[in-house]
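Standup notes
- DV: blocked on the single-chain target, sequence here:
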Amino acid sequence: MKIIFGTSNKRKTEDIQKVIAENNFDLEVLTLEDIGWDLGDIEEDGETLEENSLIKAQAIYSFCKNHSINYPIITDDAGLFIDALDGRPGIYTARYAEEERRKDPSLPPYECINKVLRELEKIENRKAYYRCAVTCMKPDGSFKQTIGRTEGKIADEITEPIVRPYFYSIFNYQGINFRNLNEETLKETYRFCALKQALEELLKEE
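- DV (later): unblocked, structure below
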C-alpha cells in the first residue's frame, strides 16, 4: 500500500521508513515532493499538536482530491513541554526564539536553546516531555489520531552538538542525552511509538 507522509523533512521521512522496515509493514512512502506538492508551507495555527497535525492532513487531503490522488495521508506535529515553564515551548517548539532572532539577526539559529536555559536558570525542576500527535487520514476523509510521549529532563547546560532538532541537545531520556540514544532505545520514543501505532491501525483496517 502507498501512503503519503506529509513532510519534506528528510529526518522525519527516515524515521517513518525505520518504523516500516523494523515492523515489516507492507507500505511504500510518498513524500510531498513525490505527489507534486507546490503550495509551500502549511500554516499551522492550531492550539494543540492534534489540531496542527489535523490541519496539515486536511490541507494535503484537499490537494490530493484536486489531483485525483487517493492514498492514506500521515501527518504529525510534535513539541517539547517543560513543566517549570507551564508547558512551553509546546506547540511553538520549532519557532520558540523566532521573535528574538527577528529583532537581533546576529543571534544563532539555536537561540531557542539559550532562551530555555535562561528561563530555567536556578530552577531545580527540570522535568519535561516530548509529545507527538500523528493523524492518519483515509481517502474518504475519515481520520484517527495517535499519541506518543517521552518523559525526560532538561540538562543544566549544552554538552552535545547543536544541530536540528535543536532541543535534542539538552533533552535527557533515562539519563542519556537524546542525541546519544541507540537505535533500540529510539524505538521506544515519542515519534516512533505514535507512527507505529498509526500504521498498525491503518493496516488492520485494510
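- Follow-up: The beta strands are 2-5, 28-30, 73-82, 89-90, 127-137, 143-154, 171-173, 176-177.
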